[in-house]
Structure formats: C-alpha cells, structure tokens
Specification:
This protein has about 625 residues and is α+β, with helices and mostly antiparallel strands. Helices cover about 35% and strands about 20% of the residues. The structure holds adenosine-5'-diphosphate.
C-alpha cells in the first residue's frame, strides 16, 4: 500500500452520521438496500458508458453485471461488491466523505438544530453510503474505475468518527467492493438467512443479479458457485406488449396473495418532468376487510426498482383502497419517509394521475362490458360511493359510475345509473328522487313511496350505510337536485298534480282540530303534525324537515354509538285514509290513537320502537274497545 493519506470529514458529514444512526436506529437493515442500490447504479452507468466505449468492459468474457455478497464470520465482516463503473481517486474524494453531493448538502442546509425535527428530516433525503456506519464500526471501500490500469485502484477506509484514509492499491477487477466490519451486537448481519430475507424484501426487483455463494462445498480452486437471490423481475419495467396475461396474473397473485385473476389491470409509464411507472390491479373479489377504512394494503412504492414501502396510502385515496399494485418512481430519494410522502408534489401528481386513469378505466368498463361492470360494482360499489364525499375534484366522474337500486324494476341489485334515471324523467319532474332506508326491503315497503308509485315516478332506493353521506354531498346531477322523498315538502305540481284542489282544501280545514289534538297528545316528540301529500295506502308517515338529519341517518349514528343531535320528525297524516277520516278529535282515547299512529309510522320505515310493549298494550286496548263496540 503506498501513498496513504488521512483526511477529515467535513463537520457536516459527522453531524449527518450521528443523526442517521439515531434517526434510523430501528431500520438499520436498510444499509444493505442502500449499498445494493449504489452497486446497481454503478453497473447501470458502466453499461451505459460502454455503449460508446467497449474498452470499458475490459474484454470481460462474462461481461455480466452483478452484485455479490459474502460473509466472513471469523473476521465479523460483510462484503458487498459490484463490477460496475468504479471510481477514480478523485471521485472517491468527491463522492465519499464530503457533502458536495447535492442531496446531502441540501439536507445539511435544512438542519435546524432541533434533534426531533432533524431526525424527521433525514427521511427526506437519501442516506446512501453513510448508512453503512449504522452497523459497521469500520468500513473499507476498494474500487477501480473501469478502463483504468489495475494499479489505479483506491482503498478508502474510515471508522466514521471524523477521519478517513485513502491509499493506492492494485485491483484487477473494475468496480467497487465495500467491506463492513460490524459493530458489537450486529452479528445478525453475519447470518446468510437474515441477508436473504433483507434482499427478498427490498431488492428482489433489482434488475441485475444479487448473488451469494451457493451453499455447498467450495470447489477446488476456491471460487464458489454463485446463487442468485433476487428474481429481478420488475415486471412493470418491461414493455407492455412483451408481457403475457399469465405473467401479469402471476405477478398479481404474488402481490395480492389472491389466486383469482384480476378484474382489471392498468400498466402505464409516465414520462416528462417526472417519470414513473404504475402497474395497478383491481381484484375480482373484494377483500374481507374492505369496509375497514384503516385496513389498507394498497400500493407498493419502488424507487428505481428498489422496494421502499408497502401500503403507501398517499398514493391512493381511501375510496380506491381495493386497488393493488406497484408504483416505481425514477425521481424520489431512496429513503423517503411516510411524512415526506404526505407533502410531496410528485407523490400528489402520481396519485391524481393514477386516480384519473382508474376512473377512466371504470367508465370504459361500464360502457363496453356492462356485465363485468356489474361484478365490479357489486364488489366495490359501496366503497366507490365514498369517493363522492372524499374526492371533490373527481365528483362528477364518480357520479357517472354510481349505480342504484330503483323502483324502476324494484330489483335489489344496483344497476340504475343517474344518467338512466334522468333519461326516464318526465317533463315536469325537476328533481332526482331517492329514499334512504336500513335495508332494501324496508325501502321498498316504505309508505313514502306510495304516492310516487301511484304517479309512476321513479325513486332510487338507497340502503347502503354510506348512502346517507353520499346524498349529503352529491347535491345534484346534470343540474337536477337530488331530493329525498322522506324530507320536507313535496312539490305536487312537479309530481304531476294540480296544486289547488278545492275539495282537498276543505278537507284539510275540517281536519285541523284533529291535527291539533294529535299534536297535543304527542307533545315534544313531534315538530309538527300535518296532512300528507305523499301517502296513498298508509294512514301516517314520519318526515324529516329539510335541515334535519333524517331518521335513517340518525339510526346509523346511534348504531355506531355516536350521539345524534336530537331532531324531531314531522308526523304526516293521510287525509284520504278511512282511519284519519273517521277519527274524531274529541275521542277519550285519542292519546292512544295518536301514539299508535306515530309508532306505526316509525315501524313502517323499518325503525325499532323504543317501547314495543307499550305499543302492543295500546293496540290491544284499541282492539278490545272495538270489539266492545261491536258487542254493544
Ligand atoms: P447517492 O447514491 O444517493 O448519490 P451515496 O452516499 O450512496 O449517495 O453515494 C454517493 C456517491 O458515491 C454516488 O452518487 C456515486 O457517485 C458514488 N458511489 C457510491 N457507491 C458507489 C459504487 N458502488 N460504485 C460507484 N460509485 C459509487
């Protein structure tokens, strides 16, 4: 070894090392990912430069780029070597041990001196080579630039504490080898099984082989056979037309642990200011925990084929949490943290781009393959509906995707689009009518529909819990307001009836005393008792006022254990019903009648009574007195 010299790290490098060791303490294993990624970059650069200068390959017979990892248990060291481009002495000085590199410099400039904040910051910049010191007390880097004579090898060595040394060495092979002399307590990294696990997790998709000595007797010449650990598939990085359906499906099966072929797949490479590839799948079956908004499996994030993290929530909104896949960005640093992703413009661009593509694909499916779309909707529709609330920017596009059950065919399956509905609307009809209920059966049987059925006006039947939120946010479609048939006042004219009907007016005058008496009997429980426009067969129904929550939403909130703000319903009576016509406001048992009408109205919406026994008692009293009348 000749010409050995000792240098000091720049002060900032030490600061960086110190911070890194503390900030990334629980993720020490990433050092291997960082070093493998550096080796892979070095091989890529050699491949690129040798396109114009074959001599750089030094007549290499195998000419195959690879990264090799060996363990020396006796020396307690781990060695990562590549046959990439290598570095000259100047390049080593420049790249390793200074903060000239822009990433590190920006990092150091951003340091605030506040340890907690700085620890957070570190995730936003590449940590790269220095991460070796998290597990190593001494690091030796030997390298030779491709195309240079063997004598121009360089040996760099440091304990990461403040100084490093440089020396010239003979080195036959071009490329770089890094030897980590492990710290006390880091012996786990001397176990090949551990190394295999780390590579499988982070580096499986690296394009070049990552090799370890095969587990068998060494050959006579001491040169081991090499076993490649990574599959290097990175399917997403290959051109679409070279990938078979079977390959895609296998990839999906491994990614999602789902043996069924996906319903949809999207494979896009986006190039421009910001390059990324997205390979996304929609499974054919919803996962069992689809409705747990916290339980996401989502998207895997890669940076240049290096695995960065699972379940990257920032890449997909919650209402598309069933989408599985991979995003590979060319431009993000390797060591991005979840916090970083939250505020990153590129991540935002990838997300909005992917969402647009997915929504477009769903729309295409709806148009071209209605049967497939029906399957899709049955599996994921209830989650897609959340998008109306969550994704304001795409609300219109999502509205086109919605499907509902409807009185048009009274089927339970959700097949009616808002467009279908609007296409069937009559000339006078201004609104899109809907009814929310606990269940499809309750919706179908609701007294609120009676008048609409009689007039032949279609009503959408909404019985998914999310529907209440949906209609709370989707106020209109194609300039037509969405209107609940169980709320507020109905516009009779819109429903195809003349507004002033003298006979009707007289009847309501006659019924005024009855309304007042029932109101008095029910007291605080009702906001108002009035005559109804929406009933045909039933004597009574409950209506929410325009601003109130509505009975169904109130039930949902209560079932979730949330305190629903008290809102009093309006009791509407059907002036045509014999019961109402014959009921005399002066009756002694009017209180019982009022209570029964009120409870019945609640029952007919599918609500549970607070005091069912009291209801039964009252009914029996009324029945008994009817029998008594007959007997008399
Ligand atoms: P980054 O890889 O994010 O640039 P590093 O600290 O890991 O940061 O590496 C600094 C620089 O050192 C690299 O940009 C590269 O120029 C050089 N380098 C690191 N490892 C290797 C290697 N195995 N072969 C050739 N050059 C390397």
């Amino acid at each position: 070894m000749s010409d050995q010299q000792t240098f000091s790290f720049q002060a900032e490098v030490q600061q960086l090392l110190h911070l890194m060791i503390h900030a990334l303490y629980s993720h020490k294993e990433i050092f291997l990912r960082e070093l493998i990624s550096n080796g892979s970059d070095a091989c890529d650069r050699l491949r690129f430069e040798s396109l114009t200068d074959k001599s750089l390959l030094e007549g290499e017979a195998e000419g195959e780029p690879r990264i090799r990892i060996t363990i020396d248990k006796d020396a307690r060291s781990l060695r990562i070597s590549d046959n990439g481009i290598g570095m000259t002495r100047d390049e080593v000085t420049e790249n390793i041990g200074t903060i000239a590199r822009s990433g590190t410099r920006r990092f150091v400039e951003a340091l605030s001196g506040d340890a907690a904040k700085d620890a957070n910051l570190i995730g936003q910049f590449g940590v790269g080579f220095y991460s070796a010191f998290m597990v190593a007390e001494r690091v030796v880097l030997e390298t030779r630039k491709a195309g240079r004579p063997a004598a121009e090898g360089v040996r760099w060595e440091s304990d990461g504490a403040g100084e490093y040394s440089l020396a010239d060495v003979e080195r036959d092979e071009h490329g770089t080898a890094i030897t980590l002399h492990l710290r006390e307590g880091e012996d786990e990294f001397l176990e090949m099984a551990r190394i295999r696990t780390i590579i499988a997790k982070y580096s499986d998709n690296i394009a070049l082989p990552v090799q370890v000595p095969a587990e068998k007797e060494e050959q006579d010449d001491g040169e081991p056979d090499w076993e490649t650990l990574n599959s290097g598939s990175a399917l997403w990085a290959r051109p679409r037309n070279e990938i078979s359906d079977e390959e895609y499906n296998n990839f999906f099966a491994n990614l999602a642990f789902d043996p069924n072929p996906p319903l949809l797949r999207l494979h896009n490479r986006v190039e421009g200011n910001f390059d990324y590839t997205a390979l996304l799948f929609v499974p054919s079956k919803a996962p069992f925990d689809l409705f747990d908004r916290e339980q996401r499996h989502g998207i895997k994030l890669y940076v240049r084929r290096v695995f960065i993290m699972d379940d990257t929530r920032h890449l997909m909104p919650a209402y598309l949490r069933f989408v599985r896949g991979v995003v590979d960005s060319a431009d993000l640093p390797l060591n991005v943290s979840r916090e970083f992703l939250q505020h990153n413009r590129e991540i935002d661009l990838i997300r909005s781009g992917s969402v647009k593509k997915l929504l477009g694909e769903f729309a295409r499916l709806a148009k071209d393959e209605p049967d497939q779309y029906a399957t899709f909707w049955d599996e994921f529709g209830r989650v897609i509906k959340e998008g109306v609330v969550e994704d304001h920017d795409n609300r219109q596009a999502i509205a086109e995707l919605l499907r509902f059950a409807s009185t048009h065919d009274d089927a339970q399956t959700q097949r009616v689009s808002l467009k279908d509905y609007v296409g069937r609307m009559g000339d006078d009809q201004k609104s899109i009518f809907y009814l929310t209920a606990d269940s499809h059966a309750a919706a179908q049987a609701s007294p609120h529909l009676e008048y609409f059925r009689k007039q032949g006006i279609e009503v959408l039947l909404l019985s998914d819990p999310v529907d209440e939120w949906l209609v709370g946010h989707l106020n209109e479609y194609q300039d037509k307001p969405l209107k609940s048939v169980a709320r507020g006042d109905l516009d009779r004219e819109e429903l195809g009836e003349k507004s002033d009907d003298p006979e009707r007016e007289q009847r309501s005058k006659d019924l005024e005393p009855l309304l007042a008496a029932i109101q008095a009997a029910l007291g605080e429980r009702v906001q108002e008792v009035r005559l109804s426009d929406r009933l045909v067969d039933s004597p009574a129904c409950l209506v929410a006022d325009e601003k109130a929550l509505g009975a169904n939403l109130q039930r949902i909130l209560e079932s979730m254990g949330q305190a629903a703000p008290e809102s009093r319903p309006i009791l509407e009576l059907n002036p045509e019903h014999p019961l109402i016509r014959r009921l005399d406001s002066g009756r002694e048992d009017l209180a019982d009648w009022a209570e029964v009408l009120f409870d019945q109205a609640a029952l007919s919406e599918g609500a549970a009574l607070k005091e069912p026994a009291a209801y039964v008692r009252r009914i029996n009293r009324l029945l008994a007195s009817t029998l008594g009348d007959e007997a008399a």
